Every structure is written in C-alpha cells, then in structure tokens.
Amino acid sequence: MTMLSTLLLQSANTITVQIIFALALTLLLSFLKLPEIFLFGLLSYVHPDDVAAPNNTSSGLKAAIRRPGTYDAAEPNKPRKKPKEKFEFDEQKAQIFRIKLNDSHLRTRRYFNEFSGAFNSTIIALSCLLLHKFQPVSKDLGVLRNGSAVPILLGLVCVCRVALLLAKVSWEGSASKRSERQLSVLLGAIMFLVGLNILFGVVPTCILDFDLDSLDGFGKLSIAIFMGCIAGFLYVPALRNARAFWIGTDQIRCNLSIISGGLFSRMLLYANFLMALFTSLLWFSPFCELLINQNIDGTKGSYLPIRKGHDFKLAGNLGFSRSDFDKFRVWCLLISGILQLVSLRQNVQMFLNEAVLCWYQRLHASKVPQLDYSRAKVFLHNHNLCLAVLQFFGPSALILLFLGLSHTRDDLLTNFRLACSFLPCSALTKELALYMAWFVVFVWATLTSVVLALYRRGIIYVS
C-alpha cells in the first residue's frame, strides 16, 4: 500500500512538473520575444524608383504615385528637340539603401507570426523532451499517469506544425517558380518509392544500417508517404540553402564585401554543409565498417583476440566500438541540427544579399542599366524575409524534434494508447524517430550538394 501511494504521488508530481514547466515556458517566451531578438540587426535593402526630381537642383526620393501636373505647371510646354546620341550615366538612379531591421520592421513581414509561433513551440517541445530525459519516470503507471504524454504530444504536434508550414511556404507562388514546385512534386514521388523500398526490405541492411522490421504494412506505407512529403517540402528550401552557401562563401569571386560574408560567416557555412554531409553518410553500412572496430567487445569494452594467419585489414580493425559508434552518430545528428540553427542568420542575410547581387549585375550588365527586374527582386526578397526564415528554420527544427523523440524511454511509446488510436503502435518507435532525423539530414545534404555541383559546372547560376 505504501509503495502504491508512493508511485501515485511520484506520478502526480511528474505530470504536474511537466505541465507547469510547459505553461511557465510559454508565458516566459511571450515576454522575451526571442524570434525578434534572433532576427534583430539583419541588413535589408530598398531600391527606390528614382532619386532625382525633374529639376536637378533638388534631390530626394521620387514618389511612385504623384499628383498630376506637379511639375508640368512649373515648366511651360516647349518644342521637343531630337535627343543627342551622347550618353551620360546617371549615378543617382544607381543607388540602393540599406536598412537595419528592428522589431517594427520584422512584424510587418509576411509569415512573421507563423515563424514566431513555430520558433516558440519548438523551444517548448525541445525543453520538455530534455526535461523528460533527465526526470525520473516510473514505467509501471503508464504513459499518461507518469507525465510522459506531455513531451511526446508536444513533440508530435510541433513536428506536424513545422511540416505544414514548410509545405505552405514551399508552395508560395510569389516566392518560387512553377518549375521548382513541379520538381518538388517529382522529388516527393521518387522519395516515396525509395522509402517503400527501404521500409519493405528491398534495400538490404548491407547498404543502410537501419532495422525497421517491427513496422507493420500500414505503418510502412504511412511512413513512406510522410518521407515523400518531407522530401518534396525540402526541395525549395534546399535550393535557397545552396544559393546562400554559394554567395556567402564567395564562390562567384565577386570580391564585394557587401554581398559575401566575413570570415566567421564563411567558416560557419562550411562547417554546416560539411557536418550535414558527413552525418548523412554515417548510416550507410560500407561507411560504418570503416569506423567500427569489430575486434572490440561492445559489452565489455575489451579487445577480442585476432586470429593468426589472417592479413591485417584497415576496415573493421580500427575505430569505435558498436555502442560508442551509435552514440557518436547521435551526437553528429545533434551537432548538425544545432549548426543549421546557428547558421540561420547567415543564410537569411545571404538571401537578402542575393537581391543586391542581382542589382549589381543589372547595373553593370550594359551601358544603359535595366533596373526594373532588380527593383522587383529587392522588393520581393525584403517582403518575403520571414518566408525564407521559415524555410531555413524548418529542417533544423525537424532534426532536433525527431532526435528528441528518439530519446524517450523504451517502452513508453508502445503504451501510448492515445497515439495508437490514430497511428499503428509499431510506428511509434525510437528507431523510427532516429531514422526520420537522419532522413531529413540526408535529403537536405544531398539536394544542397547536387545544386552546388550544378552551380560549379555552370549549368545553373545565381541571378
């Protein structure tokens, strides 16, 4: 009786702590305004319609819509003369203004409320999952009584929210081309078929180091559909990520400090790209064999005896033990997600600088500058700032959320009856959450690498 009362008291304290912690963090984030602080100080640009008034004595911005007859009354009608062939470059029309964004600027941008909500909800879900990992939980009372339902529900809801926002911004007509949206659908269909082959065992474990045989048929089909959707949603953001890397690391050799980033920004972009590429390779079995020492007993940490008479091979004789290698892969996933989140400001700044590069190219492309296209691009990049922020933020949020869900305790998800009423219980496993975290990194790194290769070969270019 005493043990039962102790368990009930512990369960009540656990679920109370989780609920109070989530509510307190929600209230705190509403006052801190972390999304505004996170984006504060970014440099945006404004391209004016004209910088000179009709009389050369005055200067200033020309209104896009002005009252008829403002300058006509001041100047009488004169016979028109044939213009001369002489060309004079008007420097006043070749100006662009830089604005340092603050709170009032950010709130007027499209999708800022969506980004703010996704950012705050991701922090709350990750914090609750982190608290759940280090909080003592009794497994005998079930997932609802011991408070584990709070972080799991928050994590799943946040994953769905971020995925839906990625779908919404990826299909935005003013921010992407029609061909890009068509290619995203094609990529989603291809990755759906690839997911079916992986989940139904067509791709053997000698290629991918995943064991997902516990999933039933409906669970495998549902996860394959989800994989195709995620891959399609990540196509347009991966294009932006590749352009940001190409501009931020000055691969076009423009040598303009206003466009490319500084040394720290370049190192961060390189580290983010290389870490995502390296992490995506850690679940391929041939690459795993190079890093796992099969002569180490993973249970005891001791070295197994090597048979004499066999040639020494590098693969399988050097590296980590199996348990240490599994921990190393998880840490690489965590570092990759954090690096993508840290480099978000640099990527968004390169997105804004892309419009400046377009303006500079149009300014020097011909003797008579045609700045209508660059003016429209500067406006759209300034207007769609938070849309690009969501596209850069979504992959890192998904990686961290899936990784947090993969670190719930072994038998908690199988007893989660509420989720089992909507999804197969076998689909809610730790291995599946880890697989989805790796899949997001793999798709992100692969698409970025392919686009960068096309840039390098000159097949596509930034304009």
From TrEMBL:
Pfam families: Tmemb_161AB. GO terms for cellular component: membrane. This is Transmembrane protein. Belongs to the TMEM161 family. It is a multi-pass membrane protein. It is found in: Membrane. It comes from Lithospermum erythrorhizon (Purple gromwell). The keyword rRNA-binding does not apply. The chain crosses the membrane at residues 12-32, 111-132, 152-171, 183-203, 223-242, 263-284, 328-344, 385-405, 432-455. Keywords: Glycoprotein, Membrane, Transmembrane, Transmembrane helix.
